[in-house]
Batch of 2 targets.
Target 1
Amino acid sequence: MPRDLSAAFAQQFDMLVIGGGSNGTAVARDAALRGLKVALLEKEDFGYGTVSRSTRLIHGGLRYLELFDFGLVREGLREREILLRTAPHLVHPLAFFTPVYKNSRVGVPKLRVGMWLYDLLSWDKSLPRHRFLNREEAAAAEPLLTTEGLRGAFVYYDGHVPMPERLCLEAALQAAAHGAVIVNHARAEKLQRTGDLYLVTARDELTARTYEVRAKSVINATGPWADEVNDRLVGAAQPELRRTKGIHLLVPKLSRHAVVMLAESDGRLFFAIPWGDYTYIGTTDTDFSGDLDRVRAEREEFEYLIRETKRVFPGADVGRVHFSTAGVRPLVRDPRARHEGQVSRKHRVKHHEDEGYPGYFSVLGGKITNMRAVAEETVDKAVRFLKAQVKPCTTREALFPGGMHPDMDRFKEELAGRYGAHGFARETVNNLVDLYGTVASEVLDLAVQEPELARPVREGEPDIWAQLAFSVRREWTYTTADFLLRRSSMGLRPGMALQVAPEVARRLGRYLQRTDEEVAADLAAYEQAVALMPGTPD
Ligand SMILES: Cc1cc2nc3c(=O)[nH]c(=O)nc-3n(C[C@H](O)[C@H](O)[C@H](O)COP(=O)(O)OP(=O)(O)OC[C@H]3O[C@@H](n4cnc5c(N)ncnc54)[C@H](O)[C@@H]3O)c2cc1C
């Protein structure tokens, strides 16, 4: 049945947010929690943009200490602590192993100062402080590591968000629970100003129908698309962003810990991050000007990461790349920065009042880590403009919808006990809690009511069909890509779920009453998305 958004857009909004990445969903969440009437448009899906191509860390950024960006590091470390507490099912502590070699650009003394500062700037943290391993301890901790010139290793802790796409989704869900109208697969196309109101034309990408959305303020939170969107909507004269590309490769497991490495060729810092039985390596940082919807990792970028990883892990099987990701950072332009890596990661919230667009704001830059703080600042500015009487910001304390239990390991135990009697495997329960947190019980209830939905999507893997049914009913899933890449992590494993994609598309077609042609088009779109994430051929 074709989607009809007329009723949803019939009302007038205080705020229209454009973009459903980390910034847009966090702004919608904060504004809705404060009591504003909010609408959000996302042209694809929540977390589709830069979020899904990130390193998936919730961190202060050890690297930014070298740029003397202490304020940025402190903000990240404070926000890390807030996310660990408010989204404990999605954000976890992760130990980072940092080997130091005789000829490292950053030696033991400099790194020791960095580690000490990182601890100092996170004085209020719940994570352990750093420690140093001598050469023997370091070699024993990471057996595949080269020991030639090894001096030892530092171990420190940061945050990991394996599914930042779901962090965006949950922010959007919480906004909707507080009255926001949230619409994915709908693009903001045009903007007019009539009196005190903005009229934004939204195009439903699923039906090609267009709607007028009326709002008193507009937030452009479109990440690397921000300049293009400003150009189209308000005819902004100057680009505000410097866009730099970063890629990751999924390779066979090479380390027990997350590992911080220094590239020999350019002195850049990059990571190996555990991903189930595999490892993500990345990232790169190169200026980008191209089609943001068709960005993909190129051969020389593969070669750079593989070469540099092999230097540190000579015995590792990094030549076998299962897939790659490529994304574009929306960095605030900084005329002083010559190299990509020198551009500050600080964000900026710009009010376009002086250009004749009062109440139109652009959110520029920012990291997933800082999404809440960026949102607080943005909503504060919008509230001042709107002169609205609203509740105070509560996002420092407000738990995400799946975070309603103080101890997720204990919650897993409780659920395993409760649903074990219905025959659910421990891995299924754990996987559901990792994705949905406390909402996992609702997915399990669905599978109990409809036993066919308790079957695994793919034999030997923990995901069950109830997740698809649930995500259509409750999580705005409209495409196979939404489900495989952003509601679950099935598409982010070797093989990219291509074997099960036809069945997912078929079932989705049944739920959404699609024609055979529509099902085929949805499946083809998934295959195209996967084609932009190439690995090495089998
Ligand atoms: C390689 C790489 C690694 C990174 N690693 C980390 C990390 O480990 N930790 C961290 O905190 N940060 C990291 N970042 C930074 C972080 O991912 C981004 O800064 C952040 O995701 C930006 O969020 P955003 O919401 O502004 O943009 P996006 O996530 O790009 O979201 C913008 C959204 O706007 C939508 N959109 C565009 N045009 C329109 C339109 N006309 N109408 C409706 N919607 C529209 C897009 O579809 C998109 O979903 C990394 C970035 C990169 C590139």
Target 2
Amino acid sequence: MNERIQFLQQRNSAARLTEPGPSAEELESMFSVAMRAPDHARLRPWRFLTISGARRNDLGALLREALLLREPDADIATLDKASCAPLRAPLIVAVITCFCEHPKVPPVEQRMSAACAAHGLLFAADALGYGAIWRTGKSAFDPHVQRGLGLEPGEEIAGFIYLGTRQGPPKPLPALQPADFVQSW
Ligand SMILES: Cc1cc2nc3c(=O)[nH]c(=O)nc-3n(C[C@H](O)[C@H](O)[C@H](O)COP(=O)(O)O)c2cc1C
């Protein structure tokens, strides 16, 4: 079996992540991979925010505030879980979709390009030996979180990519059969 195909077939998200995260140099190469996403009219409909170190606590505070605004009756345990969520990895990359008006490229295509960029980050993390997982949850769609992260009108969060060193063994890959999903037409 072709090694590169084998590598691609084995990408696997990792929910349990610890130090170290990718270095600045590694991260730069990961962004280069992300930006090889297919991109109709080369609009580059993405940008990335890196959140690490103590800034993860600030993100946690923002997630907690947003949760409280959404659910004023949320209990302390749920609020604490929101505050601690960003501490689940040494580094988080928020992938932002940046929409623009284009006669041939509707928003859905721009959103798909940014999603491909996020997927590129997952593959690049795997290639460098790091673990990663794409997370959203209600907070990704929450206007308070979007404002707190400095999103402009016409932007949205495609996802939070949690990155770090995988803790524990990789989870088993699902045994999906292409034949169950592919028909010839
Ligand atoms: C747009 C998007 C949002 C996701 N949000 C979450 C999330 O908030 N929490 C979570 O545990 N997994 C989330 N996932 C799923 C994980 O990233 C991952 O794909 C899943 O755990 C399956 O693992 P695998 O990628 O190794 O097959 C999301 C995936 C996508 C594409």
